[in-house]
Design a protein that fits this description.
Shape: elongated
Structural class: mainly alpha
Largest sheet: none
Radius of gyration: 24 Å
Strand content: under 5%
Number of strands: 0
Number of helices: 3
């Protein structure tokens, strides 16, 4: 694997990287690989999933179920039955 050297990084950026590593319980190398990969995916619009195969299946099933709901169903959310006109 190729080794990279980053110079002149903003101290605030370094602090954020260290804080992220701490929250994940990861070392510096793993954290930087993860952050670079995520940043590249976001930058180039990579469509690959970060879910594991079981999660991919559950998500696909949920999307499939949502696609079967008629379009006008969601328009009714939060609306009560029609009220009769008030007598004058």
């Amino acid at each position: 694997m190729t080794e990279l050297v980053l110079r002149d990084l903003d101290p605030a950026l370094l602090e954020r990287i260290h804080a992220y590593a701490d929250t994940q319980g990861w070392g510096q190398a793993r954290t930087l690989r993860f952050l670079l990969e995520q940043g590249l995916r976001a930058s180039v619009g990579d469509e690959r999933s970060t879910f594991d195969p079981a999660e991919d299946g559950v998500l696909a099933a949920a999307i499939g179920a949502l696609e079967q709901i008629p379009d006008d169903t969601f328009a009714l959310i939060g609306r009560g039955p029609a009220q009769p006109a008030a007598a004058s």
